[in-house]
Amino acid sequence: MNKNILVATDGSETASQAVDFASEIAAKFGSALTIGHVLHRSSDIDELAHMAEAEHLIKHAAREAPMTYEAPPATIGTLFTDMHSGVETARLITLIGDELLARAERRAREIGVENIAQRAVNGKPADAILDLAEEIGADMIVLGHRGLGRVRTLVQGSVSQKVNQHAACTVVSVR
To answer: Which 3 state secondary structure label does DSSP give 113?
Structure first.
């Protein structure tokens, strides 16, 4: 029985589908659900822009970031270009991650999950997901088949492929 499920989200469409899938299982069986997000500190601007623009996070992050703008930037690339320090960039990346986690938690609650935890972690995505699964004692990891990364493989995304190969528990890759 899956008593502790980890679902990883990066803001992609398949990650949203993974949140729904994991939430349905957790609600049905009364399992604990941990929603995990690996902060994109080393990602390139294109990946961050796709994540933020796809999820309409730019305006949210601009409102929360400790910077003043006459108008919110049109793209996340502009938002990062306008940053004056690494501290501001790190804060913005954290705010985007926090919003992704909050949205995933709202969705899980709508589906009926009662026991939910959120975790934002640093590191290379696959390694960070595997470490988080071990840390929380997950019996199942659920993640999207392909995330935001630009690396394309024929069958499966590189993160989901590595998690599937190295996890000590059941892994479900959602399409």
So the answer is: coil
